[in-house]
Amino acid sequence: DQQVKQNSPSLSVQEGRISILNCDYTNSMFDYFLWYKKYPAEGPTFLISISSIKDKNEDGRFTVFLNKSAKHLSLHIVPSQPGDSAVYFCAAADGGSQGNLIFGKGTKLSVKP
Amino acid sequence: DTGVSQNPRHKITKRGQNVTFRCDPISEHNRLYWYRQTLGQGPEFLTYFQNEAQLEKSRLLSDRFSAERPKGSFSTLEIQRTEQGDSAMYLCASSFEGDGYTFGSGTRLTVV
Q1: Of all helices (H) and strands (E), which one includes residue A16?
Q2: Over 80: is that where the pLDDT of A25 sits?
Q3: What's the pLDDT score for residue A2?
Q4: Which of A24, B7, B54, B60 has its CA 20 to 30 A from that of A7?
């Protein structure tokens, strides 16, 4: 049973528009959430994170929103750029697990020029 | 320090052979993690070290798998009697007390 779900395998967006990637989780013990970006043949690269005590975290073009009651988080990329084309993974951690991250299956984002 | 380094980048082996991968973490990081990623899936946790102590193992880590971190620096992951189902990308990550979680580029294993 997947504890972290990314229900959209792919997303296509025009350059300059907003990309919204969604993630749902089932484990209420998760208290820290991360987004990673992955290019083919490379390891995941950390993008942005959010603690469960916050509902929003922003870093440049990237903003993560957390809705704890809905067990839902989203990553917004504004404006989207062709270099953002990659697979995006949502990950969650339970503070008691000491760093064992639970990943979703990923969403492949394509940003078209 | 250029980040988490994994060797080899690619490994092709025949079924039944043993393979060993190496991970060199960021030098000041005390925690080291191994993950496995198969096609269409996100990375799945395998095991985790704090310094030289192996503190957690996933049920995915069968008895054919063994990981070590003898001096609390680099780590090795060995798979004995490889099976085709072991074909995957093996990812290593490191952190300092959970902060600065950084992945390496991975070792892609193909079992033929």
Answers
A1: none
A2: yes
A3: 86
A4: B60
Give the position of tokens 């013990």: A29
The runs of H, that is alpha helices, within A1-113 are none
What are phi and psi for residue A60, nearest 5 degrees? 60, -125
Strand partners, A35: A48, A90
Evaluate whether B92 touches B29 at the Cβ level (below 8 Å).
no
A101 vs B101: CB contact, 8 Å cut-off? yes
pLDDT tens digit string along B14-44?
999 999 999 999 998 999 999 999 998 999 9
Give which of A16, A19, A18, A17 is closest to A8, Cα–Cα. A19
Rounded Cα distance, B49 and B54, in Å: 4
Find residues 39-58 of chain B whose CB sits inside 8 Å of chain A. Answer: 40-45, 48, 50, 55-56, 58
Q: What is the pLDDT of residue B1?
A: 54
> Which whole number is the average pLDDT over A65-77?
97
Question: In sequence order, what are the beta bridge partners of A81?
Answer: none
Give the number of C-alpha atoms closer than 13 A to the C-alpha of residue A57, restricted to the C-beta side: 15
Of residues B85 and B100, more confidence is placed in B85
Selecting from A4, A91, A105 the residue whose C-beta is nearest the C-beta of B40 gives: A105
